[in-house]
Amino acid sequence: EVIKKNYTSQCDMWSFGVTIFIVLFGYMPFAGPEKIQCDRILAGNYLKRDKYWSMVSQDAQDLVTKLLVVDPKKRLTSKQALEHKWIKKRDQLERTTSLADESTASALVDFASASQFRRAAMHMMAWSLTNEERAQVRRSFIDMDVTRTGTITASEFKQVLEERFHISDDEASEAFRALDANNQNEIHYSEFLAAMVSSRIKIHDDLLLTAFKRFDTDNSGSITKDNLRHVLGSSCSSELIEAMIRDVDCANDGQISYQEFISYLCDGRARTEHQEAVVRVIDESAES
User: Fold this and answer.
1) CA-wise closest residue to 207 among 125, 121, 117
2) How far apart are CA 44 and CA 24, in angstroms?
């Protein structure tokens, strides 16, 4: 479809099939010079080497063949792929082990009690994590995403915290509201990562510096009121921005130095906790 420049999201399922093919069988499904390769793709004529296919289960082979179908209307959709017996079987095996542990639950609850600036900084650091650092908590997120939709709903969140860790409904609700910065009634992976920063994921110098630079938009070496106003948007009032500065500004010079930023995040110091509605634009600003 991409070659013909006429495609829908179903082309992603073809890409998914190619990716699984390479992982399972260890070679590219379509080989040869560019012209021959394109012809084979358009015909759905992938290379099948019995030596490698014989080592892969019939269920896994079935999924690949149903994804690498040229007609997008006959190709598995994402929903159908999730219901495929090979995926379901592996998911059931994953569910036999609880991957969200006590430290995960504690990090989620603690996030709710953090000041708004600390939450904002943790969001910024979450966007700067390496793939290896994200992998440390990825499976915990999947474990809490009971319905496997890619987000954690309020009911899933409360179910895990109450049933597994005996955390009260009030505490669970408060933690969920703190994480659901955009009021979408669900927690996204980036929001979950923010709560894991400093507890499950160790804060290091590179992470601190990258987060500081995201706030220091004019590269002045300090975080000013104008910087916070630029990052957090017009929804954040001048009073709230001033309160956030006071929270961190030990030198009382009206701005946040890098050393003050480090001390605040590493020592957990926070003098005010009354700021509201600050984090909801963090993801958008961090992406840009």
Assistant:
1) 125
2) 18
- pLDDT number for residue 268: 54
The token pair at 109 is 């609850």
List of residues 6+ apart from 7 with CB closer than 8 A:
1, 72
Three-state SS for 147? coil
Structure tokens at 104: 């995960």
What local confidence, expressed as pLDDT, does residue 135 receive? 84
Tokens 């957090």 belong to which residue?
Answer: 232
SS3 category, 98? coil
176: Cβ–Cβ under 8 A, 6 or more apart, which residues? 154, 157, 158, 187
CB neighbourhood size of 227 (10 A)? 20
**How far is the C-alpha of 254 from the C-alpha of 260, rounded, in Å?**
12
Tell me if 88 sits within 8 A of 152, measured CB to CB. no
Distance CA 254, CA 225 (A): 8
- Residues near 221 by Cβ (< 8 Å), separated by ≥ 6? 257, 258
Q: Where are the beta strands (DSSP E) in the chain?
A: 152-153, 186-187, 222-223, 256-257
The stretches in the chain having pLDDT less than 50 are 270-288
Task: Tell me what the pLDDT averaged over the chain comes to.
Answer: 86
In this structure, what token pair is assigned to residue 181? 């910065």
- At 80-98, the pLDDT tens digits run 999 999 999 988 877 777 6
At residue 277, the pLDDT reads: 36
74 exposure class (CB count in 10 Å sphere: 0-12, 13-18, 19+)? exposed
pLDDT of res. 198:
64
List phi, psi (to 5°) of 197: -65, 135
